Amino acid sequence: MRIGLLTSGGDCPGLNAVIRSAVLHGIKSYGDEFVGFRSGWRGLIEGDYMELSRQDVRGLAREGGTILGTSRTHPYNHPKGGPENIRKAMRRHDIDAVIAIGGEGTLAGARRLAVDGIPVVGVPKTIDNDLKATDYTFGFDTAISIATDAMDRLRTTGESHHRCMVAEVMGRHVGWIALHSGMAAGAHAILIPEQKVSLDQINEWVEQVHSRGRSPLVVVAEGFIPEGAEEAVAGKGQEADGRPRLGGIGEWLTHQIEERTGIETRNTTLGHIQRGGNPTGYDRVLATRFGIKALDLVHEQAWGHMASLRGTEIVKVDLAEALDGLKEVPLPRYEEAKILFGR
């Protein structure tokens, strides 16, 4: 078979490991040929691709980002998109199947194409870990490691100056990054989109810690909405797709805490640092296993399905199951972390 791979949506560490394992498995086990579409769905639609040989993917597992490039092009919104045009493009370039590696938007497009008869399978990717039907996605562990390291550094400078430190991390709709990195760093308050918390409660936690001679650490997801507010802080304009560009809740909280408690407070926004760099060992292994499974799904002709982690096993799941809403932080998980807030 001649198989095309694409990476779409936000980048994250581990994408190259998927590409490497799928290509090596396909060549060694099935005698397949591979191409990589540049810039996600755009490359497939416009026929912009590169040949992928064993030499091309050598050593890729340890490299962050994606050698194919990415974009937020939607397969149905592009002027030359849609199933009929994509089918013609695949025939023109002798492509038998497509492996789409991406998050919710990418996989939603892949499922829609599969329903319309395009031979496509998916690989779940997101640092936010917000996709259902898989226990974890690659990129998440790396983001947690980066955020935790940054918070450890914030705590030492905070302790030196007896300041409250606020760390803003990614998380538009879910707070998995904030929850895991905050717990790992020993945060005294963790604020996530799923749970509204009042400023009075936040300040109480901060004052409790400061009264013991410690430097409070507050971790907040960018999509956190304080109790009494209607929407997340979006002071960064708009994304290309029209969504508000979130960011600024950390700075807003810093002013509120300092003004209401009198405690000197500083904030840091980690931003895209969480997406960059080389993947952790865990993410390299998970991404590699996903790539191998995706290639097997192609040869099973399991169109409209994706690789998934269930426990320690990599299994096949229907894309419809993965796209049935976002995987939010359940209340018991937040209550578990909340035991250690403040006092």
The rounded distance between the terminal residues' Cα atoms is: 61 Å
What's the order of the H and E elements?
Answer: EHEHEHEHEHEHEHEHEHEEHH
- Integer tally of domains: 2
Output the radius of gyration: 22 Å
Report low-confidence residues grouped into runs of 5 or more. none
Q: How many helical elements? A: 11
Q: In what order do the strands lie side by side in the largest sheet?
A: 3-2-1-4-5
The coarse overall form would be: elongated
Name of the top-level CATH class of the largest domain = Alpha Beta
Structure, explained:
The record marks 105 as: Important for substrate specificity. Keywords: ATP-binding, Cytoplasm, Glycolysis, Kinase, Magnesium, Metal-binding, Nucleotide-binding, Transferase. Mg(2+) binds at residue 104. GO terms for molecular function: 6-phosphofructokinase activity; AMP binding; ATP binding; diphosphate-fructose-6-phosphate 1-phosphotransferase activity; fructose-6-phosphate binding; identical protein binding; metal ion binding; monosaccharide binding. This protein has 343 residues and is an alpha/beta fold. It folds into two domains: 2-138 and 279-322, Rossmann fold; 143-276, 3-Layer(aba) Sandwich (Rossmann fold). The chain is built from eleven helices and eleven strands. It has helices at residues 15-30, 41-46, 83-92, 104-115, 140-161, 176-185, 199-211, 249-261, 281-300, 319-322, 331-338; strands at residues 2-7, 33-37, 49-52, 97-102, 120-124, 164-169, 189-191, 217-221, 265-269, 305-310, 313-318. A five-stranded mixed sheet has the order 3-2-1-4-5, sandwiched between helices. Helix 5 (140-161) packs across helix 6. The termini are far apart.
